[in-house]
Write a structure and sequence with these properties.
This protein is an alpha/beta fold and 258 residues long. 33% of the residues lie in helices and 26% in strands. Bound molecules: adenosine-5'-diphosphate and magnesium ion (MG).
Length: 258
């Protein structure tokens, strides 16, 4: 297991407009860290910097003390599974094929998958609860099934860090809760650290044990959910009035609707 350290990271797609400005925080190994913030606040860019997919203009991200941009690509792929927001549609593949591609960073050069790779992929399908979809074409999946397949692939990758960009956006509430609780359970069972971009503040409050709140490319706050997700701070960052409600021992954050 490895700690993630984001150190004074700045990045601009279109200089001088910064997408990330001097962002620093640490994620201890084994945490479930949620990245939240308004649209365009730099969440996806931050996740891409952590994954080594883009190199910061200044500052660095280390995993287990090593700069991700100087680690060999295959090693990064073995240690981190990045689940992107708009995963490319891989037509004419079965769910089993896609989950098996999670083994790619582990394959020996010029060799195909071994029996063990198939077993690991099959186990990942079972753990994600979608073994029955193994031979289904990916074009024939619901949004929730698709997302579980992508999670199973990340699991087959056996990375110790999972980076998820809005894994439940667009899904119905039952599937949102199912996917979040499955990720949480599997991460705990396998000792995987999770960094997850979320829009839903209530999911963040419930499932995360650390919150990174972004605002306009800067870090607005980092810490425990109950410390970061205060009404005053969220109203200021999101620019909208909020209700904080209690029910069944849980706290809920809702926008004031007019
Ligand atoms: P979020 O995920 O929080 O919605 P992003 O990290 O995607 O935010 O974007 C942060 C900022 O960078 C936004 O102002 C966005 O318009 C800009 N941006 C994102 N991707 C690109 C890109 N490929 N080219 C230029 N600007 C981009
Ligand atoms: Mg985004």
């Amino acid at each position: 297991m490895s700690d993630i350290s984001v150190q004074q990271v700045s990045y601009a797609y279109e200089p001088p407009q910064l997408a990330l400005c001097n962002v620093s925080f640490d994620i201890p190994a084994g945490r479930f860290c949620g990245i939240i913030g308004p649209n365009g606040s730099g969440k996806t860019t931050l996740l891409k910097c952590i994954s080594g997919y883009i190199k910061p203009d200044s500052g660095k991200v280390t995993v287990g003390g090593r700069d991700v941009t100087t680690m060999p690509a295959r090693e990064v792929a073995r240690r981190m599974a990045l689940v992107q927001q708009h995963a490319a549609l891989e037509y004419e593949f079965t769910v089993g094929d896609i989950v098996l591609t999670g083994r790619n960073p582990h394959l020996k050069r010029w060799r195909g998958e071994t029996k063990e790779d198939y077993e690991i992929a099959m186990n990942a399908l079972k753990e994600a609860g979608i073994a029955h979809l193994k031979d289904r074409l990916v074009t024939e999946l619901s949004g929730g099934e698709w997302q579980m397949m992508i999670l199973a692939r990340a699991l087959a990758q056996q990375a110790d860090i999972m980076l998820l960009d809005e894994p439940v956006t667009g899904l119905d509430i039952k599937h949102q809760v199912h996917i979040m609780s499955t990720v949480k359970r599997l991460a705990a069972e396998h000792g995987i650290s999770v960094v997850c971009v979320l829009h839903d503040l209530n999911l963040a409050l419930t499932y995360c044990d650390q919150i990174v709140l972004m605002q306009g490319g800067t870090l607005a706050a980092v810490g425990l959910p109950e410390d970061v997700l205060t009404r005053e701070r969220l109203e200021s960052v999101y620019g909208t009035k909020l209700h904080i409600l209690e029910a069944d021992g849980q706290t809920f954050i809702l926008p004031v609707m007019k």
